[in-house]
Design a protein that fits this description.
heterodimer; A: two-stranded antiparallel sheet; B: alpha/beta; D-Maltodextrin-Binding Protein, domain 2; 2 domains; 10-stranded mixed β-sheet; 14 helices; MetI-like_sf (chain A); MetI-like (chain A); membrane (chain A); transmembrane helix (chain A); transport (chain A)
Chain lengths: 550, 368
Amino acid sequence: MSDLKSTGPQTADAPTPEDALHEAAAYAAREQVHAPGGPADGPVLAADGTPLKRSLNRALRRQKMRALALIAPLLIFVLLTFIAPIADMLFRSVENQIVSETLPETVVALADWDSEAGAPPAEPVFAALYVDLFFAEAQKLHTRLGTRLNYEKTGVSSLFRKTGRRVGRFDTDTYTDQITALDPGWAEPATWVAMMQNNGNRAALPLTARAWDRWTAYLASEGDDPAKEDIEDVLFTTLYLDLVATGGSGAADARIAQAAAAVGGFETVTLSEQFAAADKDWLDPEVWGTIKAFAPNYTAGYFLNSVDMQKTPHGIEARPENQQIYMMLFKRTIFMSIMITLSCILLGYPVAWILANLPTRTANLLMILVLLPFWTSLLVRTSAWKVMLQQQGVINDTLVWLGIVADDSRLVMINNQFGTIVAMTHILLPFMILPLYSVMQTIQPTYLRAAKSLGATNWTAFWRVYFPQSVPGIGAGSILVFILSIGYYITPEIVGGTTGTFISNRIAYHISSSLNWGLAAALGSILLAVVMLLYWVYDKIVGIDNVKLG
Amino acid sequence: MKTKFIAALAASTALLAPMAMAEEMANDMTLVSWGGAYQKSQVNAYSAPYMEMHPDVKVVWDESSNEAVAKLRAMNEAGNVTWDLVDVVAADAIRLCDEGLAMEIDPDKDLAAAPDGTSAADDFGDLLVSDCFIPQIVYSTTFGYRTDLVGDTPPDDICDVFDLEAYPGKRALEKRPINNMEWALLCDGVAKDEVYDVLATPEGQEKALAKLGTIKDNVIWWSAGADTPQLLADGEVVMGSTYNGRLFSVIEEQKQPVAMLWDAQVFDLDGWIIPAGLPADRLARVKDFLMFATDTQRLADQAKYISYGPARASSAPLVGQHADLGIEMAPHMPTDPNNAKNTFLYNYEFWADYRDDIDAKFQAWLAK
């Protein structure tokens, strides 16, 4: 390295092209200062006449490409097996296509409905829902949608399940009977196949055409032929609705014109009544408001839920106070992780100091004692703490036997925050001791002796000379312990009781029990963001360069 | 002559081919269950005799039922379902069916009829709570108590759980609203047939939490079925809820001073589901196994190893003695008339709707 100031830390002592680049830039700057504005003072040139900066850049780029090619297998591996799945999982926190994919007609029809009006939507929306629900039920998608919306509004799950069972038995066969009475040809699937191949007919019957496409797509997925399957009531219903709306004008088939002339005198079926008969909740504007609020393909709903807010038909609101839990859990997780980190420093520092200052043989023996629990199963260690800390456990028994506590007032040391902090401190302690130990090993004992010979007391020598040199180890250990503890959930689940559980316990619950993966992803994203923010703050305050693992 | 022969050969293979296809069954089968004594009872009653009949079949057990719903969803999304038959509780079966992750079955076609000719659908009766679910056992969540810690009048009423004066000490309750909320309302003066109507209202939920609040400081909340037996054995708690089979093993196998409080036990079902989208050869094998493993005799056999009631009505009279202990199993069944004087059946529809809502309130209440 030259005396010129480089822009970043240099890792190798040997000069690199980057050093040369910095130097070239610095020389160029210096030249300009020495001879400002001189026309003869062009950039520094390499031997072949190109500017030095450019040719160095080229050399550097080649080297970088080679380095990139060398790490490419690992990079691709990490991207594919680590970054991509995590990104995919986190992306679920905003994904919400299920509503618009399952209920496409309804979502469009609902766009004009005012959720603040306090009344259920009009008949065309129910007709759209009838079409959507018929196909959703055929593909068994309605219960999945019900589960999704039940996260937002209690009762929607059974509403969809119940209605799904009824939707095939609505009274819409009235239309089927009346239309086929006009012309028995309507009952022939072949009639429909032919009719739906004509663009004029399709334009005259838009809803029917869309329903027909879904019907044929559904039959194709089942391996059935549309020309052989009976025409369902739902198609006759859409045909009736189209004929009433458009009068069948522009249709190519005479059969359509004939039906269009007759539909005015048809007996009608009110679909809103059919739905209300299946479940009266369909008349509840809140249900429709929920469907409308969650109609877009992407939603902030999960993120709102994870900060104790909710998306309702009436906008964004705070959740009822008796349901607020996540903000408190986030705060508790961070607070307890800090407590665990601090207790790891307090307990680990002296141990690391002793390890670093003992003769190697003894130190190695003690090192095994540090590592031994590290190699023991996590569950075994956690369960051992249960045995130790519970009210009929080893510690309480000993205290009672010694007469320190009375038999009827045994200490509560587990199933609370105390238990979690103790057990997790024990489990994470090696992650603090190991970096501390390796940093302390590099601190020359002569420094301490020098300080003492210059008149420092033991404390001053330690605090002013030794401790500052061990700070990088504390930094490394703290980051390891803090980040590990913030995501822990097995130990808090076993020994945490109700006051010692973390946000990760709720994430685990939503992943494996409630199956609300969107909410779990939102909570996970927030946790990741918090960790990154804390890392950034740490870098600003302490500096990440000041972290050493050895 | 030659062409005729070839034509005949082609015709015969063409005829045989579909038959051979239908007969083809995979020789590997991955069954998923809960591990522990329960899985052992299934091995003894179902898979061991099946493998004796079919020595070339290899059965692998996976102890993943606890997270089966999440794992099945992940497998399904990855398009690689490695499980063939999964043991889940009924509530999970309903959700898997709702999500399209479990296959619908036809009880009369896929399950064996009872020995007296009763169809499988009638034999299982109301216990077929989902189109995808094949019940095996009826278990119950009920209380056990320490006989040496309750004084001279042992508890015989569910409300004794809430009576701290008569029975001081800690209780173990499951860390979820299901069952606890019902018991709390029942002991807060709500009539049994109105429990779910009350629990559907926010006021009713508050009421149940308030009742649980009277003992909150004396509760250890468990999340694994093994916790309560351990806490009872250690004397950490005076009484605690858990699955009746766990209590049976504490009482009869480990001979701990524990007794059952059957009052207001909550029945629940556990059974099989077939994951959706299995290839034909694996499906054929699974269906063959299922037909065998859920017949009347096999379900009755399982009760030799664990104290859960068989789900078929026709199996009940066949329940005999415990395979190792030699005691009569019938009196230990949750369905025994002496034990089943006051029972609940897990309300699947209610909890499918209210689970998320009440769970949020319950967890917020717990954390307070």
